[in-house]
Structure formats: structure tokens, C-alpha cells
Amino acid sequence: MFVDSHCHLDFPELAQREDEVLATMAANRVGHALCVAVKLEEFPRVLALAERHPNLFASVGVHPDGDDVEEPDVARLVALADHPKVVAIGETGLDYYWQKGAPEWQRERFRTHIRAARACGKPLIIHTRAAAADTLRLMREEDATEAGGVMHCFTETREVAEAALDLGFYISFSGIVTFRNATDLKAVAQYVPLDRLLIETDSPYLAPVPHRGRTNEPGWVIHVAEEIARLRSEPLERIEAATTENFFRLFRHAKESRP
Questions:
Q1: Which CATH number characterizes residue 44's domain?
Q2: Among 29, 146, 216, 248, which residue carries the largest CB count within 10 Å?
Q3: Would you state the pLDDT for residue 258?
Q4: 3-state secondary structure of 80
Q5: Are 208 and 180 in contact (CB under 8 A)?
């Protein structure tokens, strides 16, 4: 059984095909998926999905991109995370690719999420783009190690991976690792210890080869696992078992319910 550790099933591209998406998951041995929130305004949709299906889980958080959204505070995040289907805080982090001014409000929002994760004892889902140095600095300053978590959709260097691993974090690879030109990322996938590795789709985005260019979905996380197995010269079954075990170790509030 595989687990998609990061997807957005509440987004319209997937929500309108809910039954079909879940059927494709089952057909590809994807037993569970974590539906990740990006706005407080849309969190009820994410939670409703997790409540409808025993093999889906939810997170609560505000993506670093949004500057016209409800701003979270620690108390609100902790209260929403108290629901048993909510297994993580995020997606959070820093993104200077779209916010090129590197705004201070983004860093304060990230600090808020780290403090909430520490307060509620649930791990962080961290997004970082064009902001690795500040992301790691804030993780250290706010003692993110206490909460733990994952660097999702990892696209950074081996040095950044080493720093995140030193802080106790997991590294998650998306369909990008299957892209032919992702040479450096493939090397990172070979380097990350097997007991700290996760797989994800980040669907509806970043469909892996052989589906590149189409709307991504959780059932296709198997192709991420296949590429990692090829890169590491390991049996697919070993990647399958390890990434599933890693998911339930990190997201310890998730209740594993195998079919």
C-alpha cells in the first residue's frame, strides 16, 4: 500500500471527480492520502473530505503565497487541529518566488504555524521556494524540531536536505523527481535516508511521467515511488513499505485503517 502524503482533493479539478479519484487510488494500491489545507476559509471543505472517507486525513494551515486571506493565529490553529482527522499543521513556510519582496508578514505567518504545531503536538508541512536560507533559519529560531514535520515537494539542494534532516524533518518527493531534467533532485532522492523519505503528488499539480501535463491525482503517486526505486536500485516493494511506515510514524495521529 502506498500513501500520498500531500494532495489537494478539495480543489475543483479533483473535487468534482471525487468518486473517480478514490477509485483510481484503490486501483493503484494507494490506500491513504493527506488532504492539505491552504486557506482557513477553505478548511471546512478539506475537513469534510476527511470526515467522509476513513482513508483520508486533513491538515490545517495557510499557504505562504496568499496575502488576501484570513490570517491565522496560534489559538485558532490549535483549536482547529484538535479534530481527530487533522494530523498536521500546514501547509506553511516561505515562498519568495511569487512574493519577491520577501515580506515580513510571510515570516510572521510561518512563525505562527511553528508555534501552533509545537503547542498542539502535530507535525508541520513546510513549503519553501526561493527562500531556503530563511526557512531553515526560522525553523531553528522557533525550535521546529520539537514539532517535527516534512519538507514537502522538495526541490532544493542536497545541502538544504541535509540541514532539514539535521532538524529531524522528513523529505517528500513529488512528480518532479520523474522529470527528465530534474538531475539534481534525482541525486537528492538517492541521498535521503530511507527512513526519512515520503512520496506525494501535490495534486492537482505536477503530474508525474507518464501523465505529465495532465491533472494530477493521488493514484499516480505510485509513479513517484517507481522512479525513486529505480534511482536507488531498490525493489519497489521496499519503497512502498518504507514510505508508508514513515507516513504513519510522522503523522502519528493518523489512524491506519488498511482495507
A1: 3.20.20.140
A2: 216
A3: 44
A4: helix
A5: no
